[in-house]
Amino acid sequence: MKKKKLLSIMLMSCMILSATLPMMPGGLQAVAAEQTGAADTVEATVIDVTRYGADPTGVQDSAEGIQAAIEAAKQVEGPVVLNFPKGEYQIYPDRAQKRELYISNTLSSNNGDRSTYKMKNIGILLENMENVTLEGNQSSLIFHGKMMMFSTIGCKNVKIQNFDTDFQVPSVVSVTAEKVEGNTATLYVPECYNYSVSGTTVTWSSDVSPYTGAPYWSYTNGVGHVQGFDMTTGTLTTSSDKFFSNVKSIEKVDGHRLKVTYNSTPSFKAGYGQQMRRTTRDHAAAFLWESDGVSMQHVDLHFLHAFGVVGQLSKNITLDDVNFRNYEGSGRTGVGSADFVQMSGCGGTIRVVNSTFEDPQDDPINIHGTFLQVTERISANKFKVRYQHHETSGFPNYYVGDEVEFVSKSSLLPISGAKAKVTGVVGPDGHGGTMVEGNGDAADTSKTDLNTIIVTLDTDMPSSVSANAAALENVTYTPSVEIENNVFREMPVRGILVTTRKPVVIRNNEFDNVAGAAIYISDDVNGWYESGHDEDVLIEKNVFRRCGVNQGNYSAFIMFDPTVNGSASPVHKNVRIKDNEFYFTNRTANVVNAKSVDGLTFTGNKVLRFSVNEKANPAKTILAVGETVSMNVSTAESASINAFTFNGCRNVNISDNVYDKGVNRNVNISNMQNSEVTIGSNENVTIGSGTQAASEMIYVSSDPETVRVDGTGHVTGVKTGTATVTAYELVGGRKFSTDPVSFTVTEGEAQNPVSEKILSRALTVKNPTDGGYSVSGESVTIKAMGQGLWNTQVANNIIVSGENTDRGTGKFTAIVKMSGKTVRNYDEAGLFLYKDNDNYVAVQRKHGNGTPKIHVVTETNKTPDENQNTSDSTESDIWLKLVKSGDTFTGYYSTNKTDWTPVGNSITNSAIGNSFGVALVAGTGNNTKGTPFTFSDLEINGEKIALTEDAPTGGDSGDAEKLKNVKSGNAILASAAVSGVTMPAFSSDTKSYVTTAGKDVKSVNLSLKAKDENAKIEICRNGVGNAVKLANENEIVSAENGGSEIKDQKVDLVAGLNIITARVIAEDGHTQEIYRFLITRTGAQNAAISGITVDGKDVAGFKTDEKSYSASLTKGQKTVTIQLKDLGEGAKAVLNVNGTAYNAGDAIPVSGDTMVAGIAITPDGGVTEHYSLTLRVPSDSNAKLEKVQFGSSIQNSGNFNANLKEYTASTMTKTSKVAFTAQEANAKITVKCNNETVAAGTGSVETPVTMKKGSNQLQVTVESTDKSTTETYTWTVEGKSEVYLSDLSYESNSATGWGSIMKDKTVDGKTLTLYDGSQEKTFEKGMGIHATANLYYNIEGMGFKKFVTYMGVDREANSEGNVKFNVYTDDKQVYTGDAVTRESKMISLDIPVEGVKILRLNVDKNGSDSNDHADFADAKFITELADDTTPETVAVTGVTLDKSTAKLTAKGHTVDLTATVAPENATNKKVTFTTSNEKVATVDANGKVTAAGNGTATITVTTEDGKKTAACEVTVEIPTKEYTLPTGEDTLEVEAEDFVLYPLNGDTEEHVHVETAEWASGGKFLNWFEPGDKISMNFDAPEAGEYEVTASYRSGCTDMSTTNNAFNWEGTNVESGSVDVIGETGATTTHTVTFTIKVTQAGKGVLSFIANSSKKGPQTDKFVFKKKAETPAPTVVAVTGVTLDKSTAELTAKGQTVELTATVAPENATNKKVTFTTSNEKAATVDANGKVTAVGNGTATITVTTEDGKKTAACEVTVEIPAAPDPAPEELVDEVKKEIAAAESKKESDYTEATWKAYDEALKKAEKAVKEGTASKEEMQKILKDLRDAASALTKKEQTPSTNPQTPSTNPQTPSTNPDTSKDDTAKVGQVIKADAQYGVFTYTITGKDTVEVNGITAKGKAKKNVKIFAKIKSNGKTYKVTSVGANALKGCKKMTSLTIEKNVRKIGKNAFANCKNLKKITVKSKKINTIGKNAFKGISKKAAIKVPKAQKKKYTKLLNKAKLSKKVKIK
Question: pTM higher than 0.70, yes or no?
Fold first, then answer.
């Protein structure tokens, strides 16, 4: 399995901390995880799934353990990590979660699939959870049977990461032909598959359930649907079953092979494979429903059962590094059953990035919505809509609040005014029920079903929204889509399908070998009903190779195909296809085929041939001097493609593309005008017919003095000797070369000079193909290689004379001689008057439907007619003639050129006009190509037209200098050798090789050499279909990758398939060629071991069928060694201990008391075997069980796990034997059954237990050796009186191939239905079986007494069904049946089976076995517990109390709690009561609670059965004695111990409590008066006023200034206060302190003394109270309130103030004193008079409070101080100072009053700005400008002002739109300039005489990676120093990776380099920087490093930190 390298920071923290933090109960662990973007940390909880029963060793089923961990996670607040320690986890469907779900594009409504498969088995299910991470740690999840791997339902923020998933036995069966010899083939079957052979039938089956012993599925032969996979080419196609049809015999042979003999030679070759599957999509691989923010990252999905990853009505889904591919060495070729990714009706953003998609059975990605058709317009705003496709329904497609829009079915366009919001929904809820939401009417539920939804909208819809004419789309659930950096290879249908109106980006992907269109965009309201239209599509920088090659309907690289005819307004719009590379072969129709698109741009793309192998084939290579021969260059693999087809498109733009030879540069259009297509001037693309790019040939001789070659490839011998000639073809920006040809020149003159002929250069060849035509003498031969010109066809090798030549208006005649007859259907050839491919008239031979004739064919705008014809001549040579007169044409033929026979009647064609060519054309529609036709003697209007000419024999060889500037596209291997196996001979033209290897061949050596020394070679093994963009670092096995030659590279072989791929990458870096070497190897297939040793000692009790073992270690042991005995040949073993992999024999560190080693043994070919070994250090405090053994009589519901304490089980027998073993040999075990002790022992106990019908409780208690720990394990065992047959496993069956044996279903998967004599009766339980078959049940020892069932032929069968039932017990026939049919009354069977070992149920055919669908209905065993008369035990399900809270106010007071046990008829209702705090309250056995002391206590009731609990919170508040406060001269003395004590948390040991001492009054005092404690007394005050209190105490505090002892008081009707107290060291003396307490009103009150965190209470003895005498006070008018004149205020500058005025009421209040306070001094302060002063940004509440009554009023003050701009640079200030200095030379008297006044004002502003020094750069620039403008405008009194004074710039600080100042010699401060070219890519602002600031960066600069801020620049001949970088100057330069700042820079502005996210390297050379603006480097790479001058490091570090530089950035 491939390794993952990435792990989230949070999880890394979790994992590190997990080693140090204690584990919480149940496996929960709290860790500190960094909260992104926050300064604080958030508690995340890590839940270890293994502590809940999940098994990382791969031995046990982990389904229940994983779900238990998920349930625990649901109880946790905050983020949760469900952690899977590294290992292998088995997940079976039997105990997996099950939900009824309806999933888009899956189950069909047409054949009962929905009801049959509506329940889904889900391996890992998250429901209604948030912030959950499933962390796999690269674990493997192995699924079984038919099930879903993951599902999130109603979840938010879920991450699924670092997993590797597969199925034990994939339900797609992959088989490969290893060898084909004559009529016999050897087929390789991957080792994961189980199969058997009977006659000519192969039965495939899954693994068996560990619970039932039965397989989950079984199929036969071709299974159902077959997809062919040619591994020699990597091509997938839908196919017929070639392996298991026409079969004579099948034999199962060694090595997981089948030997199949056929009745005739099979149609496949070695290397061909079949992927075979059922078409029922019963599950999805993963289901993300109604979830938001789900991501899958670093996940490998090796198989997806039934369907792919489905997102449905979810938002924001990310797949990042999710790889859909087989694992290396699996031997399989199929990865899934259908689509890989299906996003149906999703919203937000769908991201699919960095992922690999290989070998699906359908489309890898399909993102769409769902149209529901309107079936009823209930009202103007209420509609019934219906799902239309049979595989989509049952789920809600709309929610209240969603935006929806109706579209027209006929046009697919939105209906005007038909967009609205949903207010009500009635329809399916996705779980099989009905939902009613919003204002939906519940009464409508009867009108809906799984297919129908009724929606109510917030507005009325136009009348055009009507039944069957409109469909409804959910606009809310249309996503933005990002598909980037993915690899798609070996696609059987199409690549990416996406329909959404939100932006779509498809970028940087690679597509290779896609049968249909790589990108297919539809919008379908007639078939699949997948919505909707696309409005913004960017297809950019992708590489497409060999796409559209095998799907005629989708034969294009990119296709837009909405379900309209193209004649209406366009459906899609705004499509940009740019900067892509398309590599085509000869099987793709178009580069782009687009229908109904408005705004399609195709620009910057390259369209190139995929494979080019140039060859030279001269007629001879030995020449005489002067003799000439042609090089005769051709391409071994020719390819052609038509560029564009557009239907109903608008605004199409084609420009700046590169086209290779073979591209017919044409645009075929329909339903649109030519004017809708704009073609760039250099495209050479035309509408209608098109031409191919002309290649340039260059020929190079190694010795021109010996052998000369000219520009046409003609080689001439010059003098004797030898030289080589190489031909080069330059086209499409690439060059291709032939192998050098060696020529030898002999002495003497040429004896027989060869006169070479070539095609006349006056002729044009359209759509040429290599070898498609040839010349000889005066004639030309054209081979019928491709189609003709009929309708939309495009012919190859059209030879045209005078294309588009003006022929005038007179009569026109063309004659040609043609030799050759048509020999096959649809051959044709003849003479054409040719306008273009779609407008012509021809006279030609045609071979239609077996009858050759001569036709006159006319075609006008793609409408052809061939009705004019006559019988063909018997002669091979005929003459053809066409005569044109105006628009009338007549065709003739002759055998002698004298006697002419008309061909039918004359025809008319007005489209030809007077400008046309004369063409010779040959074509065919037959699969067999190549019929030759020879043309000669062409005449036009009587003038002979030469078809050939002599080849020139001299001239130049071409511009050889061009070769140096063009990189080679040669990706051809020159040689290849594979040693170690017998491989077919290598040829560079043959791209695949197939062979076999025995088990002794463990590796091969490859030697490869490319023809071009500048090419590169890479070798890969397995997992890589076509070696495009390798995703796995382990795939490249060549140690010498990157070279053009690889020698003896060792490649290890796995058992089974080895696809070794050599990828040759040409010098140009783009062109590739693929060579495949397929080696099927036989493995040893032995995973056996004979035992396990630990530190050299055998592990006891080893058996091959037992998988779990344990062994003991010694205390203090540091390492342990595990060895495996007699490991099978070639097998590999890996030990996984605590997530770390070890080899057998390694020294494994011992950690903790217990370690579990997972042992995985992978054979050399075969299925991995798993063992679990628990290693334990003995511990006397360990009280856990090691092993539980129930035998067959008790069935436990799950795997035993020592950490889990509660289980459920079932039994069918009264007496069962059980055994329990403790982990420690000396631990004591006690076993109870139904509350009675049945056994006890030490170390282990084995005992019989007696069960009864109903609920039983089996309880096992383990006491540790040292008696310090006990653990109790409980099993609730259901005693069953009957057991259904379908709940048991059958040992074997002998079913025919008609169908699977079905549990609880018929053979066809329907409800069991029999005829009872009067009507049909259905059954939920039973077995469906097809005759002839046997079922065997091993029932020995299971306590069964009898077997009962109904038998019959199911009603689903037709009249042909006819069977006999027979029943056997231990081979004794106990029932013999007569023949029955579907009309027969069902048979009732009741037989005894007590003591029976094997029950055999037989169904035999009675005649034909057609429709023999037999049922054993309601089949069950009656157990011995059925006769149990013991009252059935009814288990307790819960308990409640009659009170949840209670309050007691006196010591000894009681309250009775009554417990109610549920259910009412529970057998054991015993309960116990406990208290959490006996010092507060006690409770007796009957629930009576008694108050003991103040505080709170929780009273808990617990049931004996099931340990169910309920609780009551009891509060005890015992009031103390009430004291009457004294009056007059009286005093009151209160002992401190008589106060009510409230110790913190009820702690009376280390908090306040009563102690005794002789020094204390009454002998008692209060001690430990600690923070949080309180003492209280109740009082009754006869009158309000002040009381003098004298307290007696002792204290150890000695200094009043540092004392931490005090009396702090508060209370009811008491003003708070405090007084510090001191004493002496040791608190040895009693002191008193007197203080005043004010009672605010007469009556009852409470006085409390408290201790807080800063002042504790002293040792307290007593308090003496005395009323203070009071002076009569004047009449006091109390304050009733206060108001402020403002409730809100806003301040916008620091120091700005606002006055608040307070008004106290009433006006005559005695005390009007108030105080003002602020809630936030950082925002605003306030003085005593209410003046508020702004300090900083924020809000502050200013509160006024009256001294009397504490009445308040408030004003909310908001301070928003604009951020201060950067101060003006020094250089700019200096310029202003110069202007100020210049004013001294000016006199007011010299100038007019008006101009001087303006100047004087500008001058004063400048002087003030310089003095204050706070002006920003922009402000200072304006001040300088204004001053200069005013100076320029000064007008002397004696002068007349100019009529055209200089007009200053109105905004000099704004950069010019054209900052180039190369023509301006008067550049001034503030002006924006460009530097000379050599000084970079910036714009600059002049800041001084010779200084500038970097102002911004150009578009060209933004594309640069390495950026430099120069020390100096030149502009316009002037040199400037660069002293600063302006604010935002380089912000957002995302391409920049390195930055250098040179020596003159002094200042860097705010945000200067912000968000340069890839900036990693910064070098600062300047030592002068004094200012770095805020966030100047915010958002640069966190891995960045800044190198600064050593002397400035401290200073610069401070500046950078102040500028908020990320702490993760290093400063060097």
Answer: no
